[in-house]
Specification:
Structural class: mainly alpha
Radius of gyration: 24 Å
Largest sheet: none
Number of helices: 19
Distance between the termini: 41 Å
Order of helices and strands: HHHHHHHHHHHHHHHHHHH
């Protein structure tokens, strides 16, 4: 009888050890996913598969369903994906529709696993952030070192800027800028307890490295947001009095010199801003482009695409159901061709997404799809006051909101995995602390 009790206790102990080991493994896989986001997409896809497998090994149906019922803030993600799935049936291009659904499986997988299926302590949150910061730092060193090597070999400098700087990576310069800005925000606003980043000299080295990398990526909108972010940081440290008057003055002077050097010298970054001023916006509104040989700028291209999308929505009455997730490109291509663009420019615009997720959601899924999308990106702002590290999470959500207005981020893996992952980290951390405070108060 005693032997039987010992055996039962050993089995229970072994089960607990196994559960604890699997749980820790799952958290480390989340860290690995954070690390792989800026890298080629295959690595993040493999990380999500591994996370799904380990989570299923310790899956608790009752708890997950209970969490899904209570955490209504996650429902827009599921509804958004369901609307995509329904649109398959009225999309003409079934192959493209299935491909789109496949790329957006993260809309369901990550909210279930992270948002509803886990808890997230501040210690694990810090580890996730650390892995992401390390990834961006390694990527910065790699890209800048490669650019320097090419400069020594050829004397060319184009590879230091914009898309050429991240040539060979799946995410282009704009998306890498999006990642880098959040990583810089982590270094500035997160109260690090990790023994590496508590060393100020190391933190400053990583910060300088990533800022240089970010500026070289030459994303006009995000550079402006970065300057606002710096002002927010100066305000924060002024209020908390973490820097002396001399340190604060040095910080402000350094920022002013950096901005002055960007706009007072000839460089590709300045030229990208001048491009906006020199381009005639009228070029995006011509009735016919048959005899027009001018190239679109980034701005006029976006305006032209939005114009075409709005005209398609009106002409085909796509307000309530959209054209389906498989037919946007076909619809846009036909309309663009009707405007008489020359074959080269028309070829460059074939199958291009709308560079605006509001228009993309509206033309694809109609007003219901747009509503779900707006819930996904706006809802977090109403919960920021109830969560720790509100500065950092505000930056993530605010920058992402502005980014979605100039990029169709949910039409590429570069945007889907990054935003969905950190959005679910936000919700998981919020729910964990909410539940903890509820239990504590009772």
């Amino acid at each position: 009888m005693v032997a039987g009790k010992v055996t039962i206790n050993l089995i229970r102990f072994a089960s607990m050890v196994k559960a604890s080991w699997l749980q820790n493994l799952l958290y480390y896989l989340l860290c690995i996913l954070a690390f792989t986001i800026p890298m080629p997409f295959i690595y993040s896809a493999l990380s999500i598969i591994a996370i799904s497998f380990i989570w299923l090994l310790q899956f608790n149906l009752k708890t997950t369903i209970a969490n899904l019922k209570q955490r209504k803030e996650l429902w827009p993600w599921f509804i958004f994906f369901i609307l995509h799935a329904i649109s398959y049936f009225y999309s003409n291009d079934k192959h493209q529709s299935l491909f789109d659904l496949q790329t957006k499986l993260s809309f369901v997988i990550l909210p279930i696993i992270i948002g509803a299926g886990m808890t997230l302590s501040k210690e694990w949150l810090e580890k996730i952030f650390l892995f992401f910061v390390c990834s961006l730092s390694i990527l910065s060193v790699y890209c800048i070192s490669r650019a320097i090597t090419i400069w020594f070999q050829t004397g060319h400098t184009d590879q230091f800027f914009y898309h050429a700087l991240v040539h060979g990576l799946d995410a282009n310069a704009v998306y890498q800028s999006w990642y880098a800005l959040f990583s810089i925000s982590m270094l500035l606003f997160f109260p690090w307890h990790n023994r590496f980043l508590t060393k100020r000299w190391l933190k400053y080295i990583l910060l300088i490295l990533q800022i240089i990398f970010f500026i070289l990526l030459s994303s006009r909108t995000l550079i402006v947001i970065f300057l606002l972010l710096v002002l927010l940081y100066v305000r924060k440290i002024f209020i908390t009095k973490k820097l002396s008057a001399l340190q604060l003055t040095t910080t402000i002077v350094t920022i002013c010199l950096l901005v002055t050097s960007l706009f007072a010298t000839q460089n590709p970054i300045k030229e990208r801003y001048i491009e906006i001023l020199n381009k005639n916006l009228h070029a995006a509104w011509l009735k016919n482009y048959t005899n027009d040989n001018n190239e679109f700028s980034n701005l006029t291209l976006r305006i032209f695409l939005w114009r075409v999308a709005f005209e398609n929505i009106q002409e085909h009455d796509l307000w309530w159901a959209g054209c389906g997730n498989g037919d946007v490109s076909e619809l846009q291509n036909k309309k663009i061709e009707a405007y008489g663009l020359d074959p080269i420019r028309r070829g460059d615009l074939q199958n291009v997404n709308l560079h605006n997720m509001c228009f993309q959601s509206l033309i694809m899924l109609g007003i219901p799809g747009l509503t779900c999308f707006l819930f996904i990106i706006i809802l977090p702002f109403f919960y920021l006051k109830h969560i720790k590290y509100k500065y950092l999470f505000f930056i993530f959500n605010f920058v992402s909101l502005l980014f979605m207005l100039q990029e169709s981020a949910f039409q590429t893996q570069a945007g889907i995995i990054y935003y969905t992952f950190f959005s679910q980290v936000f919700w998981c951390f919020y729910f964990t602390n909410k539940d903890f405070n509820t239990i504590k108060s009772t």
